[in-house]
Amino acid sequence: MINMSHEQKLVFLVTGATSGVGHAIAAQLASRGARVLLGARSADSGQAAASAIRSRTPRTDLEVVAADLSDMTQVRSLADQVRQHTTRLDGLVLNAAEVRTRRELSPDGFETNFATNYLSGFLLTHLLLPLLTTSAPARVVALSSSSHAHIKHLDLDALSAGTDFNHMRTYSTTKLLTVLFVSEFARRVHGTGVTANAADPGFVRTNLGRHTTGLFGLFLRIMRPFQTSPVKAAGTPVYLATAPEVATTTGGYFVHSRPAMPSPLSQDPAIARKLWDLSGDLLTQRDLASREELT
Fold this sequence. Notes:
Elements: E1 11-14, H1 20-31, E2 35-40, H2 43-56, E3 61-66, H3 72-85, E4 91-94, H4 112-134, E5 138-143, H5 156-161, H6 167-188, E6 194-200, H7 214-223, H8 230-233, H9 235-242, E7 252-255, E8 258-259, H10 269-285
Parallel strand pairs: 1-2, 1-4, 2-3, 4-5, 5-6, 6-7
Antiparallel strand pairs: 7-8
Helix pairs in contact: 3-4, 4-6, 6-10
């Protein structure tokens, strides 16, 4: 239990905190005495999530920051809201994700799953890096999935526009991108006091597949009783965000709060650097970020 004054409390931002694993992560961090910023798609859904946590754990320190993470302009707004709420940030938990079953483009022209599940986290982490650095030691925890290992070949150019769209392959690919991002980010910020690790929460009973239909939607409904609960699935991300024994661990991939080996493709440093450069180009070419923000 963290017993601190408001000024001393650890501060975390959890994206996608209104349901599922993100909600459970936020609740567990708050119950430990941390101040938690709940990332929500809308203010109303965020306030409902905060009320649900307070109904179980009264007097928790929660605030809502709202943005649609498929829209990079709103990602920037989210970073602005965080800076307005706090002068420190001890942890950033990148949890927000979705599975769109049809190819849809975001307001910026990116395939929506790619924008929400990966690119928003890339941009948000960069925008909040100065705050994380001045708050160091600080941690970035990004949620991935064992499904990332299903991807054996990566066509980065096709992915951002969704020209070769298959919703489950696209989802798995975004989780592969998350592991690659964590690896390259950890390498680049080494020595700053900011760490980054990927967490695999398992096959979780969440609203992730709320947009799914057809056979896959039926599969998710059938498997729901056998899926891990969000409360249990939150264990690994919360461990990475708080445990003293991993305070300096960085660039890792964790399952059940233990180091695990991600796929060989996710460990390719050349691909990680190529992804990093491409992500920066996608944002700067659309004037969604400056080179200075992405260095």
